[in-house]
Amino acid sequence: MLLTVVPLAVAQIVTLFAVMQTVEKDVDTRARESLIVGSTVVSEFLSSRGEQLRTSVSVLAADFGLKQATATGDAATIRSVLDNHSRRINADMAMVVDLDGNTLASTLDEADRPEGHLAFLANDDVQNIETTALFGETAYHVFVVPLRAPVAIGSVVLGFPIDHQLENRLASLTGLDVSIVASETAPTKGVVADAHTLSYSLPFGAGSSRFSVVLQRSLDEAMLPYVEARRGLLIFAGTLLLLVALAGVMFSTTIAKPLRTLASATQKIISGNYEGDLKVSSGDEFGELASSFDSMRHAISEREQRISHQALHDALTNLPNRYKVLQILTTAIESARDDQRSVAVLSIRLSRMDEISSTLGHKATDELIIQAARHLRVNLDKDDLLGHTGSNEFVLVLPGQDAASAMSRVERIEQILGSGVTLENIDVALQTEIGIAEFPKHSNVAAELLRYASIARTEARTGKERVRVYEAGREDEFVRRLRVVSDLRTAISNDHIEVWYQPKVCLNEGVVCGAEALVRWQHPEFGLLFPDEFIPAAEQAGSIVHLTRYVLTKAVKQCREWADRGCVLHMSVNLSVRDLLDEYLPYHVLQILKENGVKPDQLTLEVTESSIMEDVARAVLVLECLRDIGVRISMDDFGTGHSSLAQLRNIPLRELKIDKSFVMTILADAQNEAIVRTTIDLAHSLHLEVVAEGVEDEATMRRVASLGCEQAQGYFLSKPLPPNEFIAWLDDFKPIVFHERRKTDRAFATKAT
Length: 753
Ligand code: C2E
Ligand code: CA
Ligand code: CA
Fold this sequence. Notes:
single chain, 4 domains, eight-stranded mixed β-barrel, five-stranded antiparallel sheet, 22 helices, binds calcium ion
């Protein structure tokens, strides 16, 4: 409305104003012109009339009868001549005066006679006079002509009234308002204007300044035809404005209203409300726009639903993701709180996925995870809420269950996944590590419960257990372990890692024959750390390979130093699982030995059963390489695993270390002694040397010696010692004397140092 009506109104006003301005100017100019033309006409008329009148007066003055009557003073004759004559020439007044100015005869009544007014006529020098004069109430245009016979005897005076008739005559001649006014002052020159009229004055006739003719033109009147036109214009403009306004209203209802509807629908979409169809039902472009808009709204709402589904679900398995699980758990906690029930949270990790993915590839791993998710979803209870929180991590929320009752579900999960997932015709049995946390026992915050469950799961993994329930307070420990893992690499480069040595004694000669290198960590914050605290973490984090190389280098160097001081000792270094998968390890070992000039058979590498079992084929390959370069391999912690000696036949072993758990209890437990005894015999039959570790007292040492062990290691001899203390200990050491020794059918001789 504003855009159409206002500019139009302004345009109209401006136009009208301009037109009227021009018109007024034009009217004014024309009025002035008409005044000037009128004045010319008037003065022309007056002068020709004056000429005419003068002639008639002269004719009268030449009248012989009049002259005679005047000369004789015959008033009656004069009067009659005057009457006749004045009637003929339409004079209103006629008189004859003598030379003294006295009236001899007059057509005027006695009262109207000018007394003394004509005194100016009593003049010797009588001549023609044309003037204006008031006789009584009436103004006259007066002509005086002397009567000569032949000398002047008097004057004839003729008067013509200056009256409305004259004015009307002039008005009809000029088309102007004409008034003849007595003027005291001289008439103004030129056109004079006031608000409504233009005036022009000119002197009335010749020789008179007593009257002037005022010509007037009323501007209002002149404007009259234009005022009509203006009214017409105004009406036209008003009608136009009205029409335009009407059009505006129509425009706003047919265009602006649908647009407003669209705009408010857009606002709704912005605020996230996708409900309700548009109510624009016209068949025009707006109808089309509205229906396009509706389809757009549907598409957006669909897409948003999809996006929010994607935001809350794992792309691979379509299971609720971590964020969604948190929501589910929060709701479960809330309703459990009202019913005073528990909620168990299980953090489930598929084990060995790295291995599987490096063997089968990532695509197969993804497929495996999808299958695992499907198996779980199909086989678990309807109320169990399964989520997928990490690549191979799942979460199971069990409303109404506590940690104890969740155990049955753990078994079920192990069953479901353990029974195998088929992948490209291969049955892959999946193993899991599971951590459990419980509401309200451990926490009432969803995120915390999830974290605790995954801490418990990590602990289960570290402890090589299937499942573990979170224990309150373990969090600090967990954090500390995380720190330890992250600090390990810098610890190696900052030389915070130390290697301590525990002596091994040869039971045949009673002398020190070697040492085991055991790692220690001087942590700047936590103090001295023992391997049990950081080795498993380092194994998980993958930094164990660096650590092993570091320890190996230090230990071999140490071996060199001792040899330089005159004591040639065997050096035992522990390997872990990852090292056994490292095909470059033999090369590095050889390198280190060469660099330090240490013979390969001076180095023993200790491996555990379980570490070999992770990947027997690869481990055997690495171990055979090591054997081939001449390094001795020792089976550590023997007896704790499940394998029998027969199973170890393929492994190139030279030594077997009976685990300290058997040795430490050998005196108290007859069964353990029997186990140790048969193990020693079997080992010997396989040409293996036997080391008893965990010898804590002399009696134990003598017993293992009597059973045929070649070497002993334990606190009785010494705890692991830092290098300098080890030297001091070595200097103090007195060879042990053995009185009784069980004879064994050994096929080889122990090398004495
Ligand atoms: P391990 O190879 O069985 O080492 C022997 C462990 O038993 C050592 O613990 C030692 O201090 C302890 N020990 C020795 N004699 C006795 C005794 O008479 N009684 C008792 N109760 N214990 C005794 P440590 O040094 O804490 O090492 C623990 C484990 O850490 C080692 O067990 C070994 O598996 C691992 N480890 C140590 N150093 C390294 C290393 O450099 N690399 C790798 N991969 N593992 C290492
Ligand atoms: Ca060991
Ligand atoms: Ca051991």
